[in-house]
Write the structure tokens for this entry.
Amino acid sequence: MNTQPETGQRSTGQRSGGQPSDGCPALRRCVTGDLEEFAANYWGAQALLSPAPDIPAGGFADLFSLGAADELLSRRGLRTPFLRIAKDGSVVGDSQFTGAAGVGAEIGDQVRDDKVAALFASGHTVVLQALHRTWPPLVDFATQLSVEAGHPVQINAYITPPESQGFAAHYDVHDVFVLQVAGEKHWTVHAPVHVDPLRNQPWTDHSAAVAAAARDQQPVIDAVLRPGDALYVPRGFLHSAKALGGVSAHLTVGLHTLTRYLLVQELAALAANEAELRTALPLGFDSGDPEQVAQQLEKVVPLLTEQIRAASADELATRLRRRTWSGNRPAPLGPLAHAAAITSLAVGTAVRLRAGLRFRLVPGDPVLMQLPDRTISLPAATSEAVARVCSGDVVRVGELPGLDEADQLVLVRRLMTEAVVVAGL
């Protein structure tokens, strides 16, 4: 976890980075205490309760509210899968809260506010999913947090009627920050029965052990969350929550944790470069026969081992970049306003790196800017100017080093056209 302002990492003349942060402001809203201590002692290892008075931000009303939930459910034209509804651990079918969109919108799965209201009144929990894509304050918050943490972020909201429980004890396959927005909710957190589960190892694979641990083991956290409180639950930790006297709402900020197993997967993928490992198995091969499998392992294991040992960090980083950098989108970009800004670009225009953009600069001739989905080539003479633009600071055309004003305009216009740079202070 990167708990320092990210201005890029330098090694052997290369640079990679994202939008700089000032003391990790998004992460600071999720945990109390020293962030270095959190990274060293809690991240992925222990649950942590952070009471509201110990979190400097002073609550989460600017991020989400019950009024925001009503607006999304009634005025934003949500469709599945942006909404789930559940009660006592069972998810109801989409048809119970969706319907036709009416004239001019030929879709059949738009959220029906009247049906949602009836289900909520009968004790169902409303789950607004992927708010990092649909609610502006959380779009910005998720962008910042993903840069600070170095892991992709998703955000859901759980709105629970009084004295109701949406889901029984379970574990998630990603780390979670719970941010209590409204009302009170009693949380119970237990140690894992399956440590550090991967995304293909859901809690239902261990449902009996989960139920037994939740019933018989002492919880590591047993507390009531009130507005402004936060709770960190590492993946694999069992948890359940119940609303108390009034309507409760909390945000679940999920970090889709990148793991060492991800490196294993990509190392195995690099082995496809070895022709002998692409050889067909014998005609008539019985994949269920251990003896036949053992014969092939004698050939495959040495070849695979040799390929893994020969793999370079550069090769692996290239694959990881393609796979992970698109986990979160950079900050939203208004297409019409951005096109107008490109047209009106002039000497003196203030520009800045697009917030949340993942990139890597490789100096040389040409300079390479590696982005999540492509690589941009730029003349070597632009190296200093590109580094300045990508520093994260606001800069002005005409003040970039190493280029005259005309060339600065050409460079910045190119970077704006590639959606790397945006106008504005």
Notes: The two ends are 29 Å apart (CA to CA). The chain is about 30% helix and 20% strand. The chain has a mean pLDDT of 91.
